[in-house]
Amino acid sequence: MANLATPSGHQNVSMLGIGACRPGRLISNDDLCKVMDSSDQWIYERSGVRNRRWISGDEDLRFLAKTAAERAIVNSGVDRSKIDLLVLGTSSWPYNTPHGAPIVASDVGLNGIPAFDVSAGCGGFGYALGVAADAIRAGSATYAVVIGAETMSVGLDPADRSTGFIFGDGAGAVVIGPTEENGISPIVSGSDGENAEAIAQNIDTVSYMARAVEYQGKDPETDPVGRMVIYMEGPRVFRWAAVTLPKALTTSLSESGAALDDIDVFIPHQANARISELLKKNLGLPDDLPMAGDIENTGNTSAGSIPLAIEEMLATGKAKGGDTALLLGFGAGLSYAGAVVTLPPAPKVTSFEGLDEQPSGALAAHLAGVDAD
Q1: Stretch 159-176: mean pLDDT, rounded?
Q2: Which entry of 10, 21, 29, 122 is annotated as an active-site residue?
Q3: Whole-angstrom Cα distance, residue 66 to residue 63?
Q4: Regarding predicted confidence, which is higher, 256 or 238?
Q5: 357 or 243: whose pLDDT is higher?
Q6: Residue 236 burial by CB count (10 A; 0-12/13-18/19+): exposed, middle or buried?
Q7: Which of 92, 159, 284, 366 is the most exposed, fewest CB within 10 Å of its CB?
Q8: In the annotation, is 96 catalytic?
Q9: Residue of 29, 51, 75, 300 marked catalytic
Q10: What is the pLDDT of residue 143?
Q11: How large is the angle between the packed helices 273-283 and 40-47, nearest 10 degrees?
Q12: Which residues form the Beta-ketoacyl-[acyl-carrier-protein] synthase III C-terminal domain (predicted)?
C-alpha cells in the first residue's frame, strides 16, 4: 500500500486586496419605467433601488470578471507568480462548456493554474471564498483570486414587476492568502431545496432548446419562441429570509469566534434594502453601525453583490481596512453563505475612477425599450 503524501497549508488566511468592475450604463428607475408599469417611488420603497448598471456595447461577463480580478491583484500587491488558484462565483457565464474561470485566469496572466466556477446564486461569492480559503488551509493553494461576477440583465424581462427592477450587473474580486492572524472565519452555509422554485428560470435549458427546434419555421408574430428569463416569488423569498437568515447570522457569529460587539460593519447581500434593515434589527446591531447600501445605485448583482459592496464601502470611507465585517450572501437555491472577515485595505484602483466617462454602447435587444425617447 502506497504511503500517500498529506499536504499541510496555512491556517490563517485573509483578504489582501479587492477590486471591482461596474458597467458604464447607469439605468435609473425612470428609464426602466419606459417599459415597466411602475414608478421611481414604488420601486424605491419596495427595494431601495434608485439605479442599476447593465452591460452595453462590447461589455460582457468575461470583461467584468477579468477587470475586477486584475484590479484585485494590483491592489493586493501580491506577486502574480505566487497566485495558484482562481475561483469564479457566477450563475450567468454564457456557456455550459467551457466554464469561465480558466478563461478569466488566462486573461489576467495566470494561465495554467487550477481555476473553476462555483454556481450558487446570490450566495456564490461566499461559497467561492470558503472553497478558496479552505484550499489554502489544506495546502492545495498558497494565494487565490476569488471573484463574484454576474450579468443579470441578460436573463431579465425588464417589464416584469417582480424582477425587472431588482437586478444589475457587475463584478468584484479579492485576493486571499496566508497572514499572521486569521481574517476569514469558517463559512456557515446551508440550503433549502424545497423552496428552490422561488427563484428560478421560467424554462429549463433542455426544454428551451427543444422549443427552439419545434418553433423553427413558425411565424414569430403569432408563435414566438420567447426568452429564457429569471422569475422570483418575492413574498415567498421574503418569508424564507425572515425565518432562515437571522439564524444563519447568529451561527456565523458563534462559529467565527467574534462577538456581536466586535462587528464594525455589516455587509449583507444586496438583495433588498428592506431585508437588510430587518436583518440588522433582528441581530441587534446598533443603529449607527455602518451597513452596506450599494443596492441603491448598483442593484442586486447576485454573486457580485458582496465584493462590490465591500469595495464601495472601502472606496468611499464608510469602512476601512482592518474592520471586522459580518457577511451574508443568500438567494437562489434557496441557499446562503455567511462569514466574519477582516476587511482588506482600501483599494488604490477603484471601479469608480472614470466610470462616468466610461464608453458605453447599445443595450441588448430585449432591453432596448429602455432607450426609447
Answers
A1: 94
A2: 122
A3: 5
A4: 256
A5: 243
A6: middle
A7: 284
A8: no
A9: 300
A10: 98
A11: 30
A12: 253-342
pLDDT at 234: 83
The position carrying cell 492568502 is 177
> Residue 291 CA to chain centroid, in angstroms?
17
**Catalytic: 122?**
yes
Q: How far apart are CA 8 and CA 192, in angstroms?
A: 34
234-256 and 273-283 helices, crossing angle to 10°: 40
Tell me, what amino acid is at 146? V
d(CA 253, CA 284): 12
How far is residue 173's CA from residue 144's CA, in Å, rounded to a whole number? 10
C-alpha–C-alpha distance, residues 244 and 337, integer Å: 12
Q: pTM, whole model, 2 decimals?
A: 0.94
Cα separation, 129 vs 116, whole angstroms: 12
Q: How far is CA 317 from CA 175, 297, 321, 345, 356, in A?
A: 20, 17, 10, 11, 20
SS3 of the chain: CCCCCCCCCCCCEEEEEEEEECCCEEEEHHHHCCCCCCCHHHHHHHHCCCEEEECCCCCCHHHHHHHHHHHHHHHHCCCHHHEEEEEEECCCCCCCCCCHHHHHHHHCCCCCCCEEEECCHHHHHHHHHHHHHHHHHHCCCCEEEEEEEEEHHHHCCCCCCCCCCCECEEEEEEEEEECCCCCECCCEEEECHHHHHHEEECCCHHHHHHHHHHCCCCCCCCCCCCCCCEEECHHHHHHHHHHHHHHHHHHHHHHHCCCHHHCCEEEECCCCHHHHHHHHHHHCCCCCCCECCCHHHHCECHHHHHHHHHHHHHHHCCCCCCCEEEEEEEECCCEEEEEEEECCCCCCCCCCCCCCCCCCCCCCHHHHHHHCC
Amino acid at 209: M
> Please, are residues 276 and 242 in contact by the beta-carbon 8 Å criterion?
no
Which position among 269, 272, 282, 297 bears the catalytic label? 269
Which residues are CB-neighbours of 64 under 8 A, at least 6 positions away?
Answer: 21, 23, 55, 149, 151, 169, 170, 171, 304
Region class of 139: left (phi > 0), else alpha (psi between -120 and 50), else beta? left
pLDDT at 372: 65
